[in-house]
Amino acid sequence: MILILSSDDDIHAHHVMQHIAERGHEALLLNLADFPKDAQLVFEAGMPNARRILHYRNQPIDLSQVTSVWWRRPQPYGMHPDVTDPVLDNFAIHEVDEAIQGLWLSLDAKWINVPSRDQDASRKAWQLDVARAAGLSLPRTLITTDPQAARAFIDREGVERTIYKPFQGSEDAWRETRLLKADELDKIDAVKYAPVIFQEYIEATCDLRVTVVGDHIFAAAIDSQKTAYRVDFRMDMNVDITPTILAPQTEAGIRALMKRLGLTYGAIDLRRRPNGEEVFLEINPAGQWLFVEDQTGQPISKAIADCLIDKVAEDRVHLVA
Amino acid sequence: MAKSKKEGVGHVQDSPNDPVFVPNFDQIESLKKKMTEESLTPDRLDYGDIRETICGTTDDSQPVEQYDGSLGVTRAFVDTHQSPVGVLRWHTNLASVYTNPGNVAGVRWCTGTLIADNLFLTAGHCFDQTGGGWNRPRVNGTSNIISSQEIATRMNVEFNFQVNSAGVQQSPVSFAVEELIEYRLDGLDFAIVRLAGNPGQQFGVTRLAEDDGTTGDMICIIGHPAGQPKRIEAGPITNFDDFRVRYNDIDTLGGNSGSGILRASDGCIVGIHTNGGCNAAMTGSNFGLRVTRMRAASPTIQGLGAHTNTIRDIITSTVADRITTVVADRLTTVRDDRIQTLPSFDQVPTSILRDRRPTTVVDDLRPTNVLRDRRPTSIIDDRGPTNILLDRGPTSVLLDQGPTSFIADRGTDPIGDRKASGLDKQFSDRIPDRFGNLRGGLFGEGGAMPFVMATPHHATGAMAGLQQTYTDDSEAAQIEELVAYYEDLSAMAEEILAEMAEIEALFDDPTN
Fold first, then answer.
1. Which of B85, B142, B264, B269 is the most exposed place for a label (fewest CB within 10 A)?
2. φ/ψ of residue A52, rounded to 5
3. How many separate domains does chain B show?
4. Burial class (CB in 10 A: 0-12, 13-18, 19+), B61
């Protein structure tokens, strides 16, 4: 059985589930927001016929039958509202988390992606090093909390030639990637409050979005320079996206990157310079893809479904090595 | 003024001159029963019930944000002066620190007022080792009660512990007590503690008067009677005797101790409330410590510098700040931010998305999800499984899920792996739990902004369409509420400025 960890209204998950169903397989979407509030775990060990059961939505799920898991959008645990003391609530959450994390490790299943790898790969500082080691080109980059270092970097790159961006932002505070303006330099001391990623601005003919599923690489060109905001393609949804072919060294670099990061799935952002050089910006271990698939027709959802169905002997996608 | 109804119970005060402490509801059978039966925390009890149970009377006090202006000071006065008033609260974790923690953990203990950015003035007896029938923590391994200094540092001060105009309890903002710097100097019942952070920059400060005022002056006490959400009472000064200022028409309870006694004419502190007489026979006596006595004894107060104590100062220190920093900031940044960042995907009406990309309407699901991925917040969405924030409403995650939502949010949970680390502590202490309480952090609006957030959006052109199309009803209502709030404050400021002009005209008038 295929287990998908996400929210009930995750459209990407539903698309993949449809492909799984078309191939005659079964997938279960497990929303952790129901656990432990509305689901019960039975995990036995050290006895004959030890059971591994999750009672979920009036259905006993035999966890020993799980063959693959898609770590898609796991939700925060749903705690019982009866526990009202914050200290005890905190206790309960930690206990739930301990049990569930252990449960994942005990599944003999293929993962997309292995959660710990997924998490590590999302760290922007580390991705850059791994990408470099994999042979990809990078923008000159400074991550700092030192105003002096920030000023020196901007001096070298030039105002309006340096972009700056947050690592992730938070739910209620974020900014798009921006070109640094002269008057914003006045506030540069504020880097001391939270580190900022400064990078050389890459003049580009287009942005590239490369979606990797196992051995499949789906490369798309995003015509970002014709949009209302050429610095960050996410900001304007009226943009053309077309399939493209990557330079051979970029493709090789991406394969090496995925291997080094231990990922099966990843969405990679790059920019293509006027001279054709393709520059790595970042990798999102669980980035979205339907906006690409919809315009390019690239069968990404199907590839994910296939990957979940087919038992491929790949050590790196197993938690139990 | 007290309205006698029936005999009071549970009042712990041996003689009228003993300071009053906050009542222990666990020792008052009827309140204890009510809390147990209705699963109420002490702060959710009905104030009238408490008052009547303890004193046998009800009183005229009102929640500060619901004040109707009828007690002798204006609503504007209360709006302006309630903000620097906070409640001293024992830490909730005493049991993890002391083998004999007593029964005070989490108890909201005394009231006080910010008199500088980080100085909080209250009553001395709040840090006494005995009194009120409470058991304070003992030094581990001994039977000795912890020192006054240690008592102080086992408390936080909470601001904004009050209900709003709709009666909904607000989230208090909490600051740690760092040091008890003055305690019962010259034997007088006052104390000053230094707080972490600079809450005064956020909540304003209140000035101390140079004189005690005179009998008949209208005064106002804003505080936390019985540790309840902030209330206001007012009445005239009855008389002075020795170091005391008396006001027999102002109803208070234990927990009010340490409140500033505010003079209605200028909002300055003319005394510290220390003793409340609460009995049905009205023979009790309310009194406080006169400001001049306190001033003479306190190097800290002397060091605050001379104040002119004019209305202009008050406007400068509080009202104007609120208008410029809170309201203006909220309107310009918060609103914009929310409109632009709000599109937490699940909340974006699908029709809007469809409108934007009719060509992608392949089926009912497709267009929304495709576009949804492309919303500005897809920045966050790209974080993938490590980020559950995304799939949730804009307000829900942190508030509803509590400090450990980070754990859940991160899937594999780096923080959870290091539960005992400083990072974990930092998060759990500073993030509102799912009950909306802030835990010991230094939160509030108006602080420093990290660089990325200190600079504006650039993609405004690309987002313009979004802003126009995306304002759902609740968002619009919030904006309207903010605008109304702004207009209220503006009107208030206008009133005060007009009043100021009148006063200045009086001074300028050569015939005066």
1. B142
2. -130, 95
3. 2
4. buried
- Taking the C-alpha atoms of residue B110 and residue A321, their distance in angstroms, rounded to an integer, is 59
Please tell me whether residues B95 and B196 are part of one structural domain: yes
Instruction: Please check whether residues B12 and B130 belong to one and the same domain.
Output: yes
Closest CA to B362 of A301, A65, A140, A255: A301
Q: What is the pLDDT of residues B329-369, one digit of tens each?
A: 333 333 333 333 333 333 333 322 222 222 222 222 222 22
Give the helix/strand (H/E) hosting B239.
strand B239-241
Indicate the domain borders of chain A: 2-108, 119-137+203-298, 141-200
- CB contact (8 A) between residue A118 and residue B419: no
- Tell me how close the Cα of B415 comes to any Cα of chain A, in angstroms: 10
d(CA A92, CA B403): 12
- Is beta strand A68-71 parallel, antiparallel or unpaired with respect to A110-112? parallel
Indicate if the alpha-carbon torsion angle B412, A285, A25, A312 is positive or negative.
negative
Asked if residues B121 and B269 have their Cβ atoms less than 8 Å apart, the reply is yes
ipTM passes above 0.85: no
Based on the domain organization, do B291 and B332 belong to the same domain?
A: no
Question: Mind listing the pLDDT tens digit for each residue in A93-145?
Answer: 999 999 999 999 999 899 999 999 999 999 999 999 999 999 999 999 999 99
Domain boundaries, position B196: 3-307
Which of these CATH numbers, 3.30.1490, 2.60.40, 3.30.70, 3.90.79, describes A141-200? 3.30.1490
* CA A136/CA A130 separation, integer angstroms: 9
Give the whole-angstrom CA distance, residue A141 versus residue A2: 40
- Asked if residue B65 is part of any domain, the answer here is yes
* B469 close to A (CB below 8 A): no
d(CA A253, CA A217): 12
Distance, CA of B224 to CA of B226 (rounded, Å): 6
Return the residue in A235, A292, A293 with the most chain B beta carbons within 10 A, the one to mutate for interface testing. A235
